[in-house]
Amino acid sequence: MLVEDLIIHFSKSVLLDGVLRVLVACEESQAVTKELRKLGHEAFSCDLLPESGGHPEWHIQDDVTELLKLKWDMIIAFPPCTYLTVTGNRWFNVQKYGEKAIQRHKDREFAIKFFKMFADANCDYIAIENPVGIMSSEWRKPNQIINPYQFGDPFEKKTCLWLKGLPKLEATNIVEPPKRTEFASGKSMPTWYADAWKLPKEERAKLRSKTFDGIAKNIAVQFTCFIKSGLSLLDWDELHISEKNRIFTQ
Question: Do the beta carbons of residue 166 and residue 237 sit within 8 Å?
Fold first, then answer.
């Protein structure tokens, strides 16, 4: 789908009561988009890459900037983390890596501005996802750090969420993650993450940026249930978990 087609669609279509219009930015996998669609919401993914989720009719392969000018009920963004994550900090040493490091600093500045573009979007409900990185100091600390093992997937991957107008996600199915891979240096990392080194660079990056099924489902269910409830964040936080679970399963 082209941006122009989406603009025309927005101008002509009228949503049924309770249906939300959601932009899922920087998501070629369509993991969250598909979960939102299962719930009956009008969700669209956007990425510079073609979709790999099997639904090109819900995907805009283009720069997301123009889409942010449209009216959305919620924006969920997965901005690229290559230059924002702390795991790549060693490559910013100018004395050691020269021009490559200088370019990397410029790429980081662009990545920071791109991230903040979502934070500044004209939308009441925004969630921005990224791994642990420099945005905690460049902007603000995340509202929440979650792991796939809190939502039924036995994997460890610290995932930060910066939220506007949305509540923290509730863990729904805590399982035990596998033992971490330990190195001679004394450091360790999740085994699935370490095993990704065996893959080609592009495949490795795509795997490591994967949104696990449990997180994708709960982002879709919990955030849309909160918005449709009409409750304030304060009132939502005061609900007992059993009442929230009842709302989630309605």
Answer: no
Locate all alpha helices (DSSP H) within the chain, ordered by sequence: 3-12, 31-38, 94-119, 135-138, 191-195, 201-208, 213-229, 233-238, 241-248
pLDDT tens per residue across span 181-204: 888 888 888 887 777 777 787 777
The CATH number covering residue 177 comes to 3.40.50
Domain encompassing residue 124: 3-248
The count of domains in the chain is 1
Q: What pLDDT, on the 0 to 100 scale, is given for residue 206?
A: 72
**What phi and psi values does residue 26 have, to the nearest 5 degrees?**
60, 45
- What is the pTM (predicted TM-score) of this model? 0.91
Give yes or no for a contact between 67 and 23, defined as CB atoms under 8 angstroms apart.
Answer: yes
Instruction: Give me the residue label for tokens 């969920």.
Output: 76
DSSP 119-173: HTSS-S-EEEEEESBTHHHHT---SEEE-GGGBT------EEEEEES-PPPPP-B
Q: Cα dist. 49→57, 63, 152, 211 in Å?
A: 14, 10, 28, 16
